[in-house]
Amino acid sequence: MENTKDKNIAFIDGQNLYMAISKRKVSPWDVDLARFRIYLEQKYHATKAYYFLGFVQAENNDLYEEIQKAGFLLLFREHNPAMLGTKKGNVDSDIIFNVMKKLYKKEDFEKVVLVSGDGDYKRMVDFLIEEKRFEKILFPDGKRASSLYKKIGAQYFATLDAPDVRAKIEVKKKAP
């Protein structure tokens, strides 16, 4: 059996990441997905990184290709076609289900890295900490992360908008 030490899996709530960084009111910025994938691998030993999105839209094919080219495994939420224009992604339950399924099936990994600021993951995070299967939750925007996570302890969270992290994963502006 392979050594699972330092073999973590990352789960990214794509809409949460995008809305918290690119659509923020004050100083929005863009994540360089390839650099972000390398960051997850080097800093958190994420050998796999699942990127969850709401649903497939043909006009976003370039984005989907970019996500996959950066090394993420892209997963979409199943929706009723009649609801596609009116629903947000809402991938929370899909991420929770996938994490728990991997634990139940005893898949070969050490810990979970979660990218989201959404409080809906709090019970899962608490369980993973209790089971010693949780590495870190990465908040896209530290100021807008759910207050539910304040009790888990600073060793279990970090922010992507911290200047040192942002410098590593931000799209570099080209000089004019």
UniProtKB/TrEMBL annotation:
<feature type="domain" description="NYN">
    <location>
        <begin position="11"/>
        <end position="148"/>
    </location>
</feature>
<dbReference type="GO" id="GO:0004540">
    <property type="term" value="F:RNA nuclease activity"/>
</dbReference>
<protein>
    <recommendedName>
        <fullName>NYN domain-containing protein</fullName>
    </recommendedName>
</protein>
<dbReference type="InterPro" id="IPR047140">
    <property type="entry name" value="LabA"/>
</dbReference>
<dbReference type="InterPro" id="IPR021139">
    <property type="entry name" value="NYN"/>
</dbReference>
<dbReference type="Pfam" id="PF01936">
    <property type="entry name" value="NYN"/>
</dbReference>
